[in-house]
């Protein structure tokens, strides 16, 4: 049995084996999805990253040796099949391959730890334990094809708007915003942490004169809670822009998401169909509601909420029901937002901070930032943070920091919206949560 490719090469993906290549010799490579042996004829379904094709081996047309090779195959083994394309009204794509050569590149063990053919629905934990098999399912890989399109469109948007990509450290000496959501690590003889947000660094880049920056990278949150929308390692799409305010960057976030959704509809319609999900391209500007109005609305719908409080889960739900799918929540109380958000000039208890929501799911938080050193120092102290641990950051505000604004957008949560999955774990290849550190 052959295991090496040698001079064997794929000529076509299964999805490109169509009536266009009728009568031609092709070589496909992939996994054995199904074997049906009817005695006089054997049907094989071969699956690759892009689709599936039927290989038909009638005993009258193919050699005894090939029939024997096919009978020895086990499900999910990796094979190369060379053969001739012929039409077939029974095969799924209207064509099938009559094999002239079958090469087993790797035989799969049996039994499989889980069935990757989507015939049996497995629990999320079983699936994640054998994620490499789970990801072979078209209904699962579709989520990542859509995620790939999302990042492509996001990068295009940033490039079109002349926003520069940066990479900031994920090993950090102190908390971004204080708080307890930090993973401590040993950094030689000191304690350090995994970065919970690129916030302080992207702001320092404004003082560096980089004008507009973005970063797509991991954020680490040592949050104990175990929900369908939190992970302990997530991907954040962060943007920060000089000489702009909250309204300017809200507009950009709005435009970017409209582009992402339009592109996913245009280029990933097949995957949306696989997932049986529809997402309409939002028209015009996202709805905006001020925090004060939101409090009234939430109370009027029977969920108690005091001015100054963060939204409870119940509050998010009733608000989500009352608003358009996408909406901005603005004018947050300064006290429950991070120290770096800009308070209103004439009403400092409210701030230029916003959240972008999709129904009851928070997608993004952003704000006009404080750019004045003295005010920033005051706010740090007001939040009981130690200015000394922020020395390197504060320094950037003393020598020419421009006014600026920005946001952080949870990429995995946007992917939930795009694909319609309800558990954030579905949108991450190898999710990290309260209980899971492997695979
Ligand atoms: P939440 O209130 O939902 O816990 P947050 O306000 O703590 O979120 P931010 O610090 O504002 O989160 O982070 C910006 C964005 O990053 C969030 O709007 C969200 O989309 C995403 N995000 C934050 N924490 C997580 C997490 N633990 N898992 C997945 N995504 C997250
Ligand atoms: Mg937030």
Corresponding CATH architecture of the largest domain: 2-Layer Sandwich
Number of domains: 2
What pattern of helices and strands is seen along the backbone?
EEEHEEHHHEEEEHEEHHEHHEEEHHEH
* Mean pLDDT metric: 96
Kindly report how far apart the N and C termini lie. Answer: 31 Å
CATH fold category name of the largest domain = BirA Bifunctional Protein, domain 2
- Give the bound compounds: adenosine-5'-triphosphate, magnesium ion
User: Beta-sheet strand percentage?
Assistant: 25-35%
Globular, elongated, flat, extended or rod-shaped: what is the shape? Answer: elongated
Q: How large is the radius of gyration?
A: 27 Å
For the biggest β-sheet, the strand order reads 6-10-11-16-15-14-13-12
The tally of helices reads 12
Q: So what's the oligomer here?
A: single chain
Query: Which range best describes the helical content: under 10%, 10-25%, 25-40%, 40-55%, 55-70% or over 70%?
Result: 25-40%
CATH superfamily of the largest domain: Bira Bifunctional Protein, Domain 2
Written account of the structure:
With 439 residues, this protein is α+β, with helices and mostly antiparallel strands. It folds into two domains: 14-106, OB fold (Dihydrolipoamide Acetyltransferase, E2P) (Beta Barrel), CATH 2.40.50.140; 134-286 and 324-427, Bira Bifunctional Protein, Domain 2 (BirA Bifunctional Protein, domain 2, 2-Layer Sandwich), CATH 3.30.930. 28% of the residues lie in helices and 26% in strands. It is built from twelve helices and 16 strands. The chain has helices spanning 64-72, 124-129, 131-134, 138-160, 199-207, 246-267, 269-274, 291-300, 313-322, 373-382, 391-395, 411-419; strands spanning 25-37, 41-48, 51-58, 78-87, 95-106, 164-165, 171-172, 184-187, 190-194, 212-220, 233-242, 287-290, 326-330, 353-358, 361-368, 404-410. The protein has an eight-stranded mixed sheet, sandwiched between helices. A hairpin with a 2-residue loop joins strand 14 (353-358) and strand 15. Helix 4 (138-160) packs across helix 6 (246-267), helix 4 crosses helix 12 (411-419) and helix 8 packs across helix 9. The longest helix has 23 residues, at 138-160. The protein is elongated, with a radius of gyration of 27 Å. The two termini are 31 Å apart. Adenosine-5'-triphosphate binds at residues 221, 223, 230-231, 234, 236, 362-365, 408, 410, 412-413, 424.
